[in-house]
C-alpha cells in the first residue's frame, strides 16, 4: 500500500565520530593500535573530500576511489575485472571457506543461481512470521525494562530469524555458546589480517587470536553436524534444498565442502549485519526522542492495520527513511574490497593487475561533495524529492552490481518488522554519561555493546 511521505522537521543531530586528523594517516598505523582493530578509526579530514586515494601497504598497491562513477565502474560496468582479493579469501577461509561471499567466476555464479530464488520478494514475504516471532520472543524477556544491552538483544533476534528461516529453527545455531564463539571468531579477524598482510602463516598468537580460532572451529564443527543431519534426510529447509542443488552441480567432495561453507556464510552474513543495523538504529533513535516518538506512532498505526500482513514494512515510510539514514551513517560493512585481474583505469588513475581496489561506504556515505551536512542524521534526505538526482553508487550499504547483497530484501523487511514491534511497545533512552563508539574491522558494531534504558511505552 502506498503511504504518503510526511517529512519530519527534526532538530539537527550529529552522532559522534572518530577524531579526524589533518594529513593522511601513516600506513603502519593500520597494523597496530585502534586503527588495526577499527576500520573507521584514523581517517583524515581529506579522506572525506577527495575523489581518489592511493596507498602502498607493504608492497601492495591499494586504490581507494571515492567518486560514484568509479564505484560503479568497479562494481557494475567492469565487474568481471574485479574479484574478491586473495588476501580476503585467506582471512575468511577458515570460517566461510569458498561459499557464495568468498568465491568468484563460475563457482560464484552457480552458487548465486542456487540460492537466488530463496531471496526473491515473494519468498521473503513467507519469512515474515519468523521476523515477528523473533522480535516478540526477544522482548518477552525484558520484563518491566531496565538497562539492557540492545546490541546483544539485536544479535539474539537476528540469529533466531536466520535459524528459523533458513535452518528449520536448529537450536544449535542460537545457543549462548554459538553467540560467544561467533563474537570471538569475528574479533580474531584483526590478528589474522595483520598476519596475512605480513605474509605470515595464520597462527593464533594472542589470547584473542586463540579465542578466535576456537570460535572458528566450534562454528565449523557445529555447522558440519547441522549439514550431516540434512544429508541423513527428514528436513525440508533452505539448507537441505541447497545441499541437493550443490550435489547436482558440483563433484561430491566439493559439494560437501561447499554445503558447510555456505551454511557458515548464510548463518554469519545473514545475522551479524542486520543485528548491527538494528543496534545503530536504536542508538540513533535513543538520542532523538521526538523522532523516536514519531516512528513509534507510525509503527503503532501500521501494526493496527494488519499485524500479520507481510505488507507491513511498506506502511512504515518514516522508519524506512530512518533505516536508510542509519545505514548511511553506520554501514554494517564499512569497506568492500576487490582485486584487479587485468590492467584498467579508474578515472585518471592506472590500475595494474593484482592491485587492490578498496571501496569505502564509510567514506563515500559521509563525503562532503556528495552529501549535504554529511555527518548529521537527517532521515528526510531520503524523501523522494530530496533523493532525486542522487548517484546510484554514492550509497552502497548492500554493495552493488551483480554481487549486491543477496539478502538485501530480507534484511530491510526484517529490520523494519523488528523495529516496528519494539518501538510500539518500548521506549529507548541513552545511559547517561556513556559514550557510544563504533568498532570492528569486517562489520561495524557499537564498541562494548549498546546498553540503553528500556521502558515500556504506555
Ligand atoms: C543490514 C543487513 C545487511 C547488510 C548491510 C549487508 C551488506 C552486504 C554487502 C555490502 C555485501 C556485498 C559484499 C561485497 O560486494 O563484497 C553483501 C553480500 C552478501 N550478503 Fe549481505 N548484508 C546484510 C544482510 C544480509 C542477509 C540477511 C543475508 C542472508 C540471509 C546476507 C547474505 C549475503 C551474502 C550471501 C552475500 C554475498 C553475495 C555474493 O557475493 O553474491 N546479507 N551483504
From TrEMBL:
MF term (GO), any: heme binding
Entry keywords, A to Z: Heme, Iron, Metal-binding, Monooxygenase, Oxidoreductase
Transmembrane regions: none
Keyword Oxidoreductase among record annotations: yes
InterPro entries in the record: Cyt_P450, Cyt_P450_CS, Cyt_P450_E_grp-IV, Cyt_P450_sf, Cytochrome_P450_Monoox
Binding positions for heme per the UniProt entry: 405
Top-level taxon: Bacteria
Cofactor: heme
Presence of keyword Acetylation: no
Family affiliation: Belongs to the cytochrome P450 family.
Designated name of the protein: Cytochrome P450
Organism, as annotated: Sphingomonas parva
Amino acid at each position: 500500500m502506498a503511504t504518503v511521505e510526511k517529512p519530519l522537521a527534526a532538530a539537527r543531530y550529529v552522532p559522534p565520530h572518530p577524531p579526524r586528523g589533518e594529513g593522511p594517516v601513516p600506513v603502519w598505523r593500520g597494523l597496530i593500535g585502534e586503527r588495526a582493530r577499527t576500520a573507521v578509526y584514523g581517517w583524515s579530514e581529506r579522506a572525506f573530500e577527495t575523489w581518489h586515494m592511493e596507498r602502498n601497504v607493504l608492497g601492495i598497491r591499494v586504490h581507494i576511489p571515492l567518486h560514484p562513477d568509479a564505484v560503479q565502474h568497479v562494481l557494475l560496468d567492469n565487474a568481471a575485472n574485479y574479484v574478491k582479493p586473495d588476501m580476503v579469501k585467506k582471512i575468511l577461509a577458515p570460517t566461510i571457506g569458498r561459499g557464495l561471499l568468498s568465491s568468484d567466476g563460475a563457482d560464484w555464479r552457480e552458487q548465486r543461481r542456487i540460492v537466488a530464488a530463496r531471496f526473491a520478494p515473494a519468498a521473503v514475504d513467507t519469512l515474515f512470521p519468523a521476523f515477528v516471532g523473533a522480535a516478540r520472543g526477544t522482548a518477552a524477556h525484558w520484563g518491566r525494562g531496565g538497562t539492557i544491552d540492545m546490541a546483544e538483544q539485536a544479535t539474539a533476534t537476528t540469529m533466531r530469524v536466520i535459524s528459523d528461516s533458513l535452518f528449520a529453527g536448529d537450536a544449535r545455531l542460537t545457543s549462548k555458546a554459538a553467540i560467544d564463539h561467533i563474537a570471538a571468531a569475528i574479533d580474531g579477524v584483526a590478528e589474522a589480517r595483520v598476519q596475512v598482510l605480513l605474509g605470515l602463516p595464520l597462527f593464533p598468537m594472542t589470547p584473542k587470536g586463540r579465542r578466535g580460532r576456537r570460535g572458528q572451529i566450534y562454528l565449523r564443527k557445529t555447522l558440519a553436524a547441522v549439514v550431516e543431519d540434512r544429508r541423513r534426510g527428514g528436513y525440508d529447509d533452505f539448507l537441505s534444498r541447497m545441499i541437493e542443488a550443490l550435489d547436482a552441480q558440483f563433484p561430491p567432495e566439493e559439494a560437501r565442502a561447499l554445503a558447510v561453507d555456505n551454511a557458515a556464510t548464510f548463518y554469519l552474513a545473514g545475522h551479524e549485519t542486520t543485528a548491527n543495523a538494528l543496534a545503530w538504529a536504536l542508538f540513533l533513535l535513543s538520542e532523538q526522542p521526538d523522532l523516536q516518538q514519531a516512528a513509534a506512532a507510525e509503527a503503532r498505526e501500521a501494526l493496527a492495520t494488519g499485524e500479520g500482513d507481510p505488507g507491513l514494512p511498506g506502511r512504515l515510510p518514516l522508519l524506512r527513511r530512518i533505516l536508510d539514514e542509519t545505514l548511511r551513517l553506520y554501514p554494517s560493512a564499512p569497506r568492500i574490497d576487490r582485486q584487479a585481474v587485468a590492467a584498467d583505469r579508474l578515472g585518471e588513475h592506472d590500475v595494474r593487475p593484482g592491485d587492490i581496489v578498496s571501496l569505502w561506504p564509510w567514506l563515500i556515505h559521509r563525503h562532503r561533495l556528495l552529501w549535504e551536512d554529511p555527518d548529521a542524521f537527517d532521515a528526510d534526505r531520503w524523501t523522494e524529492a530530496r533523493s532525486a538526482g542522487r548517484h546510484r553508487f554514492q550509497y552502497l550499504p548492500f554493495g552493488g552490481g551483480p554481487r549486491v547483497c543477496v539478502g538485501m530484501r530480507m534484511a530491510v523487511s526484517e529490520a523494519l518488522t523488528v523495529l516496528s514491534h519494539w518501538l510500539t511497545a518500548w521506549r529507548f533512552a541513552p545511559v547517561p554519561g556513556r559514550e557510544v563508539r563504533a568498532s570492528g574491522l569486517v562489520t561495524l558494531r557499537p564498541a562494548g555493546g549498546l546498553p540503553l534504558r528500556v521502558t515500556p511505552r504506555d
